[in-house]
Amino acid sequence: MSAPAKVMTPRTLVRTIIIVAVFPLIPMIISGRWDWWEAWVYALVSILGFVVSRVWAARQHPDLLEERARSMDLEGAKPWDKVLAPMLTLGALLILIVAGLDRLFGWTSPFILSAKIVAFIVIVLGYLLGSWALIENRFFSGVVRIQKDRGHRVVSTGPYRLIRHPGYAGALWAYLATPVLLDSIWAFVPAFLLVGVLILRTALEDSTLQEELPGYREYAGKTRFRLIPGLW
Q1: Alpha-carbon dihedral of residues 22, 48, 177, 32, nearest 10 degrees?
Q2: Residue 3 and residue 58: Cα distance in Å, rounded?
Q3: Which pLDDT tens digit goes with each residue over 211-222?
Q4: Hey, which end of the chain has fewer CB within 10 Å, N or C?
Q5: 174: number of Cβ within 10 Å
Q6: Angle between helices 37-60 and 113-136 (to 10 degrees)
Q7: How many whole angstroms separate alpha carbon 192 and alpha carbon 79?
Q8: Are the beta carbons of 91 and 197 closer than 8 angstroms?
Q9: Half-sphere exposure of residue 127, counting CA atoms within 13 Å on the CB side?
Q10: What is the pTM of this model?
Q11: Domain range summary for the chain, segments of one domain joined by +
Q12: What's the CATH number for 2-222?
């Protein structure tokens, strides 16, 4: 019973509520359009995806949520990731802010329904891939660090058999599909910038793991691609 108490500090609880319940509603809050069905679809997928994946991960690895909640303050967190990790959160928020502004001021004509259906499917697949990675990997921390205190080892099962960073790959899909679902060409601007940050973080993390985590270099030799099979 002690682990949940450590995780759910008042600060963590407030931050979690904001991320889970408020962030997904940002497009509707900004635009004032509470009849925007695409935004509701996005919000529901985001909220359900977050809650279900965390509950499942907590059942599989009871100490993982505590690790993620305190990761910024733990020993060994890479200084460069203390910058990049918040940038990813901010970038994801900017996509939603721009989409809300786009809807408010009518900058973009709506995408066709079939494009939005494809975008929805891509977002769901992205969430499923990221959730699978979270559930499979006991060491899926919020920042890059070698978790010697938790017996850090290479994970090569589940989606990690296919690519080395499936959590980032799932996020990448969702970032690029969200502007289409929310009818905002302008939201591609923060989305593409966010993809650049994600690729940089992936490269730095992969380099760190190859240098500092025993067995990772051998794993990388067998699982060749980081984010996109056949490409990189």
Answers
A1: -30
A2: 11
A3: 999 999 999 999
A4: N
A5: 26
A6: 10
A7: 24
A8: yes
A9: 20
A10: 0.89
A11: 2-222
A12: 1.20.120.1630
